[in-house]
Amino acid sequence: MPNPSLLILPGDGIGPEVMTEVRKVIDWFGTRRGLAFDVSEDLVGGAAYDAHGTPLTDATMEKAQSVDAVLLGAVGGPKYDALDFSVKPERGLLRLRKEMDLYANLRPAQCFDALADFSSLKKDVVAGLDIMIVRELTSGVYFGEPRGIITEGNERVGINTQRYTESEIARVARSAFELARKRGNKVCSMEKANVMESGVLWREVVQKIGDEEYPDVELSHMYADAGAMQLTRWPKQFDVIVTDNLFGDLLSDLAAMLTGSLGMLPSASLGAPMANGRPKALYEPVHGSAPDIAGQGKANPIACILSFAMALRYSFDRGAEADRLEGAVQSVLADGLRTADLMGPDGGSPVSTSEMGDAIVAALETSLN
Ligand code: IPM
Ligand code: MG
């Protein structure tokens, strides 16, 4: 059997420096666990624009379609703000999601014990928090037509369209129900059925899939605004949340911050199974490119490292090795290691991006004893 293939797209800002740490972890699994990957690397986002005048070349797109999993760093930065919309760094990421048809975006929000004090919420509200947001990723207002800026009379009008088909709703609902069965067996679906027809359809379809295919899973519905409120009031009431593309974008940032640091959270974007049975998949940290701290060794590599753990779990069926990597992260945090983003108001001395990566590799090594 050939080695599984991984395409690494470091991207912009802190993307390359956090990815350097992930490579150390990948190499460790190759040499110490006999889990070798065929790794290739390419450009995405602003980096691809600088080299090729496009945030994602067709050649890179083809490569992404042919590998077992893609691991992405981050895209974007102020340098590219003035670019035409069609070549902005974000378009590279959106093209990958759309053409690979990665419709289910899994965004866990987990509170690490060692960081519970870090949340802006009270410790008892967040300690032990473990929820999973399943965000629809390839449709909705992000992609709906018509869109654009048109002129009507003497003023301009900005237009985007929220649009969902029944099958788009059904497939992401199934992803959420399947995940819930492996977790707390609860799904809460969020939309705005009180104002939007697409929300009415969303609620109907999720309820039908629940009734017919997952009667064992507890299903509830919430308006997305109330959901945001409940997430800050008592987040532990949730297990799996399923929601659309735009609400999922907002709610997942909110949920991430509950846990204390955006720098800690990974994500998986999954599509339909390929011929080898593995889902089409792209893994990336939830945080962005953080251009303000790029190149200074301040970035936290944990979100990207945990994204590789998700790849081990969801693409490569190596749940035990994913547990090992997550355990290594827990143990360095328990030892008190902190990157700059995890420094409290009282200060302390942070470790650098590469020191954090090295410590995680050392903890992996210890896990073998
Ligand atoms: C995210 C980001 C992206 C999105 C941007 C970079 C296009 O905010 O992954 O949440 O809006 O989906
Ligand atoms: Mg976002």
Walkthrough of the structure:
This protein has 369 residues and is of the alpha/beta class. It folds into two domains: 1-103 and 265-369, Isopropylmalate Dehydrogenase (3-Layer(aba) Sandwich), CATH 3.40.718.10; 130-258, Isopropylmalate Dehydrogenase (3-Layer(aba) Sandwich). It is 41% helix and 21% strand. It is built from twelve helices and twelve strands. The strands form two sheets. It has a ten-stranded mixed β-sheet, with helices on both faces. The chain has a two-stranded antiparallel ribbon with strand order 6-7. β6 (144-152) and β7 form a beta hairpin. α1 (15-33) crosses α10 (302-314) and α6 (166-181) crosses α7 (197-213). The radius of gyration is 20 Å and the shape is globular. It starts with a strand and ends with a helix. The model has no long low-confidence stretch (mean pLDDT 95). The site of magnesium ion has 2 residues, from α9.
